[in-house]
């Protein structure tokens, strides 16, 4: 079976810890080559104050961006950018707001050809119930699911039947169906408080038959 190589990048724009750098970090996430070259798909989290489409228009015009909600809203907190044609699948509620702790967190989906991809950002440990609900709902999504899980790779691998690729000591990573071959993760410095994570996934060619670069 013919397979296609796809570079998936997981990136956190650090809009909470360094809001003034969020646009720069987002640009780096879209444009900086890593050990596997330029990313084909970028799953972004913590980008609520960033207009990702505007960043792409100015610095990565070959990328199609999906980001929902008004700038600064919870719905805009995750985004998907793809060098292949992408169709929005909409957003589903990952976890509701917890008063005084975290805002609501969406799970954002897109179809790249016949491949579903999902961008996520689970709540932090100060809201453990919301984090548990979010991760459980994210794991119900098919295809590739990636972002900031707010759980370490060891925990993620121990509690899922799918492949998980993430850097030791960090919380960004990608869940991959067992049937797909996936490389080990490679770190990319994009100026965030989390290194971006690049993973190569080899997919059946028919999955991307209707995707266009």
Question: If you had to describe this structure to a student in words, what would you say it looks like?
Answer:
It is globular and about 50 Å long. The mean pLDDT is about 95. The protein has about 210 residues and is α+β, with helices and mostly antiparallel strands. It has one domain (about 5-210): Endonuclease/exonuclease/phosphatase (Deoxyribonuclease I, Chain A), CATH 3.60.10.10. The protein has helices at about 20-30, 50-60, 130-140, 155-160, and strands at about 5-10, 40-45, 65, 80, 85-95, 105-110, 115-120, 145-150, 165, 170-175, 180, 185-190, 195-205. Strands 1, 2, 3, 4, 11, 12 and 13 form a 7-stranded mixed β-sheet that branches. Strands 5-6-7-8-10-9 form a 6-stranded mixed β-sheet. The longest helix is centred in the middle third of the chain and has 11 residues, at about 130-140.
**What oligomeric arrangement do these chains adopt?**
single chain
Count of structural domains: 1
The total of helices stands at 4
The CATH homologous superfamily = Endonuclease/exonuclease/phosphatase
Give me the strand/helix succession: EHEHEEEEEHEHEEEEE
Strand count, sense and barrel status of the largest sheet are:
7 strands, mixed
In CATH terms, what is the fold-level topology?
Answer: Deoxyribonuclease I, Chain A
Question: How would you classify the helix and strand content by structural class?
Answer: alpha+beta
Tell me how many strands there are.
13
Name the overall outline: globular
Unreliable segments (pLDDT under 50, ≥5 consecutive)? none
Helix content: 10-25%
Report the top-level CATH class. Alpha Beta
